[in-house]
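batch job 7 of whatever, protein = Integrase
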Amino acid sequence: MTDLANGLVTGDGTKVLNVEEYDKFVLCIPKRCKTIFELDTITGMRYVEVQRLYENPKWYSESRNQIILPPEAQKKEKQKLVKRTIDKLPTTFPYIFEKFINGKEPPERSSWNRDLARWSLKADIDPKVGPKTPRKTIESWMLKAGIPEIEIYSRQGHDPVTSLKHYQSLSFTDYEMRDINKRLTEWGMLSRINA
């Protein structure tokens, strides 16, 4: 059982990172895998969707700086969306995407899970980072920063009930919120007016 008192953890036991932990964790990832984790966090995609994006780079529109996931990209059997658009991507995303496509293929989920656990240990992050951490981290940051919920739900492919179930118990400190607002502004997801 996950120790809920030790850090930010969702109702299902998934570790959510604050900005300081995110930066510390990224420093422990080998260069060949760093872009996979960064892209996964920035997009908030499910890991299987990241794997499928690697195989289907045409899903990214550089001119619109959006990823448009067709139904076959989405993991969920119950998925009802015809497509899901992932926007609010940083202006530097074309560079990140090019590094991703030209880099190492995302490993199988079991290997990725072992890698994340090893890097968590190296970064002294407990509970450990798991495959759901990037997705739940960015969604929680966006919700807490005040980005309109409808934008987040459509981007993540969630409904309000799912989002509430995952994030209602998370609470960031004032310092963590300052860092989150700053990072989301740097990434172009939050306007300077809101930050």
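notes: Residues 110 and 192 are 39 Å apart (CA to CA).
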